[in-house]
Design goal:
Structural class: alpha/beta
Strand order of the largest sheet: 4-3-5-6-8-7
Number of helices: 21
Shape: globular
Oligomer: single chain
Helix content: 25-40%
Largest sheet: 6 strands, parallel
């Protein structure tokens, strides 16, 4: 070991733990989401009074809560997991966080250094390899003195575009090592460094976009979730109105970047290649802002764009730009680009083609004691406040939700960009923890609910003001849709066994009720909206007659 790094008690110095806490404070990372094991206890001992530890009862739940918290707060979040088994449990949630571009700094304990070569119990011999495909950066310090600088590097990696989760494995005996001399100086410099990445567009790139929009006969904007995450929700409205552009939502994205009730909004684009191109037929210029080009599924081959349509792509993600099958890409902050275009594009009074999507009147369910999704979300649209938040993980009912309760405010809608289940419930708890002033509704399918139901324990223990609405259709309805679409008859595992969600919620200490009429649902959601803690509402879902 370097002479300037000493074991605790060997002389004056500053411990690795003290420097790490100073680093976390400097980045506003004083809320820690975790599920600790014995290898994490040295990091957590003498836990500071100005920090908050949010316990999750399963590691995927921990990451999901941190994901929601980071997105709602706009800050990086510290996650504390338990060596290899805990990280393994969390990998699926890390895939979601990567797709969501969420800045999480995930730490996990490692066996003490003298035991690592022996691969003693709880040693993770491939600590950096296990999460690597799911994170931006994965590292383990070569020396105890390197811990502060490695954590600083991880934070900067997580928070520079494209943002995403990172991972650091830390031997449990590193935390008490005291640093002096040059090692201490290096660590202190790392703690107080800043890294900024505004990714401003160059003049040539902006000029190309201005010329395209000014010369367009019928322009369209596709506004993605990164615009909302970057604070550009209202700026996108200004740009669309300024240049008389139609606006589409991307086929699938974790956030909504444009108000869905705006007269220029034309709905979300279809997810498949040929239908998406057909939807863009009226437009000669398409500018895609802050999302991928495009997230397709299922495979419906055809033209990627209509004949004569030019596409321009603005993204912070070089890989997103490189893999797009068409269009010219500009790697820049999409919100900064939107604001610059508002100042430079010529105002236009041209007509905007198409019409805003309109919801058909809801039909009653053919099965007594159940509601159709349309009936459910008519009630949600009437009850849930405009400035409230909805976290959605009921894939088969997503269209009904957005048609009947359109997003009108920034930071009001969260979904998993990856398509993986298990995000919605814990993310809703994290969102509510980040901003308790906004009512949060988790609209969760009964299939999705089982992936991360342990989040109810955290919501109960911390009196988190979140209303969980479970849509019970006793099937993976979205998979049945795909099975019919892809001609995969007799696929097993698509029906779910009956589960009493009100009993499960009660077991976690969450007040719960089941409803079967619109009036009962309205009253239940009003109780949840006004409550000081969590509530669960179970809603049996049927099909229209």
């Amino acid at each position: 070991m370097a002479t300037d790094a000493k074991r605790s008690g060997a002389g004056p110095g500053t411990s690795v733990r003290e420097l790490a806490l100073e680093l976390f404070r400097a980045h506003g990372m004083t809320t820690v989401f975790g599920n600790p094991g014995s290898t994490e206890l040295p990091m957590l001992q003498q836990f500071p009074d100005d920090f908050r530890y949010v316990l999750g009862l399963q590691e995927a739940v921990v990451v999901g809560m941190a994901d929601g918290y980071a997105q709602a707060s706009g800050r990086p979040v510290l996650v504390n997991l338990h060596t290899a088994p805990g990280v393994g449990n969390a990998v699926g949630a890390l895939v979601n966080a990567t797709a969501n571009k969420t800045p999480l700094v995930v730490t996990a304990g490692q066996q003490v250094r003298p035991m690592m070569a022996l691969e003693a119990m709880l040693t993770n011999p491939r600590a950096t390899e296990l999460p690597r495909p799911a994170v931006k950066f994965s590292g383990e310090p070569a020396r105890p003195a390197d811990v502060p600088a490695l954590l600083a590097r991880a934070i900067h990696a997580a928070t520079t575009p494209p943002m995403g989760p990172v991972f650091v494995s830390i031997p449990m005996d590193d935390w008490d090592v005291e640093l002096t001399g040059p090692d201490l100086e290096v660590a202190q410099r790392a703690v107080h460094r800043t890294v900024r990445a505004p990714l401003l567009a160059d003049e040539a790139g902006l000029a190309t976009l201005v010329a395209a929009l000014d010369g367009a006969r019928s322009p369209a904007l596709v506004v993605g979730g990164d615009v909302d995450a970057g604070g550009g929700f209202d700026d996108a409205v200004s740009l669309a109105e300024h240049c008389s552009a139609a606006v589409y939502g991307p086929p699938a994205d974790g956030r909504v970047g444009f108000p869905e009730d705006h007269p220029h909004f034309r709905g979300a684009l279809p997810m498949a290649i040929a239908p998406l191109a057909e939807a863009l037929e009226p437009h000669d210029v398409v500018v895609v802002l802050g999302t991928a080009v495009f997230r397709y599924y299922p495979y419906v081959p055809g033209r990627f764009l209509p004949e004569g349509t030019a596409l321009h792509h603005v993204t912070t993600d070089p890989d997103e730009a490189a893999r797009a099958p068409m269009g010219d890409a500009l790697i820049a902050d999409p919100t900064a680009v939107v604001r610059a275009l508002c100042e430079r594009v010529a105002p236009s009074g041209r007509a905007v083609p198409g019409t805003s999507p309109a919801a058909e009147p809801a039909q009653a369910s053919a099965t007594p004691g159940t509601l159709t999704p349309e009936e459910v979300f008519d009630v949600v649209g009437a009850v849930w406040p405009i400035d409230g938040v909805v976290v959605d993980e009921s894939p088969s009912n997503r269209a009904a939700l957005h048609a009947r309760r359109p997003v009108r405010r920034p930071g009001s809608s969260f979904f998993t960009t990856s398509g993986g289940l298990g995000f919605g419930l814990p993310a809703a708890v994290g969102v509510a923890l980040a901003d308790p002033s906004r009512p949060v509704l988790a609209a969760i399918g009964d299939g999705s609910m089982q992936y991360a139901i342990q989040a109810l324990a955290t919501a109960s223990a911390l009196a988190v003001p979140v209303t969980v609405m479970v849509l019970e259709n006793h099937e993976y309805a979205i998979l049945k849709w795909f099975a019919a679409r892809e001609n995969t008859a007799k696929a097993p595992g698509l029906d779910l066994p009956p589960v009493d969600f009100t009993a499960l919620a009660a077991g976690y200490g969450v007040p719960a009720e089941s409803v079967s009429t619109p009036d009962e649902l309205r009253a239940a959601l009003e109780r949840g909206r006004d409550a000081d803690g969590p509530r669960l509402v179970s809603v049996p879902i049927g099909r229209a007659g």
